[in-house]
Amino acid sequence: MQKMVVSKSIQVAASQTIKGIARVHYSTKRLLSDIEPDCIAVLCHHDLDDLAAEGLIAAKVVAVINTGQTMTGTIPVTGPLLLLENQIPIFEIEPAWLPLLKDHAPLVINEEGIEIGETIIPCSSFTKDKWLALYSHAHDSYNERLLDFISNTLDYANREKDLVLKPLYCPELQVCLEGRHALVVIRGKGFKQDLAALHQYIRCYKPVLIGVDGGADALLEQGYMPDLIIGDMDSVTNQALQCGAELLVHAYTNGYAPGLDRLEQLGLNAIRLSACGTSEDIALLLAYDHQCERIVTVGAHSHMFDFLEKGRKGMGSTVLVRMKIGSKLTDAKGIALLYGSAKRNFASESRWKLAFKDTLKKLIIRIK
Hints:
The chain is α/β, with parallel strands linked by helices. The chain is built from 16 helices and 16 strands. The chain has helices spanning about 30, 50-60, 80-85, 130-140, 140-160, 160-165, 190-195, 200-205, 215-220, 240, 260-265, 280-290, 305-310, 315-325, 340-350, 350-365; strands at about 5, 20-25, 40-45, 65, 90, 105-110, 115, 120, 125, 180-185, 210, 230, 245-250, 270-275, 295-300, 330. The strands form two sheets. A nine-stranded mixed beta sheet has the order 1-8-7-6-2-3-4-5-9. Strands 14-13-12-11-10-15-16 form a seven-stranded parallel beta sheet, sandwiched between helices. Helix 9 (about 215-220) links the parallel strand 11 (about 210) and strand 12. Helix 5 crosses helix 14 (about 315-325). Residues about 1-15 and about 340-350 have low confidence and may be disordered.
């Protein structure tokens, strides 16, 4: 039987045959928590960010198939370039073909397209030239994007001001925060390296260790046991959820908490806390309103592109929370770069990052 070509509307650009088992998930975070080396990652990710790219690189995938827009041209993300610099090709397909790509199905990618069974799905290759053009467009439209972001932030800050005016107190909470330091670990850029650089601080102050979703896994990887895990439980692994930490599920203001279903399937109990804002905001407010002495954050989101990459068009609640807790807040973002030991670790584990930065500089020069 001849293979069926579904459509020829997209030009295929593949220089070699790539074979692998498909790992498919609509959420890149969930996909990365359960993926094996040498697989082909199939995802739906608009504006593929550095964090996702680094996760795919660490997972040692052989290729990425994206049903989303790898770059929209609105955010100057470098995640796609990171993948390409690490010889991980990116192929884009129309979202309509996603149902044909089943999890754990064998795939072959060649010049004809993506072979699955007797069907060939057409695809286009995401190249460095395409990245450069879209990065340049995002760079040129920065002020326009910033204006929209500021307007959205101010609008939501006005709507969500009650979040900070009323104390966020949780009487069911067993973890004692009063009078202690709280280390809040968030799954953000550089969070693993920054956490590693805080070893001396953790040993001296013995802070309450709070993991926001996938931040709990970073604590476990560094040999620390989380005291509290807060979030909607979409990017944290089962291993972290079952480590013995107290669990607090962030619910919508109407009380609905999607993360509870997963915990119930695992036979785990959790506190439900309804509030607007992000899970990161809730973790910080909870520590503050429970009278902790100091709050140290790792991986926190702090600027426009941080939030745009997360699909949030503003940071209203985050601005309000920072205004309230500012006197107790210490942000450890980038702290790893200040310590020689961390620099030595980076040199041994990430030579490809130095090569990537060199390529990035050369490409950005072409924009100017």
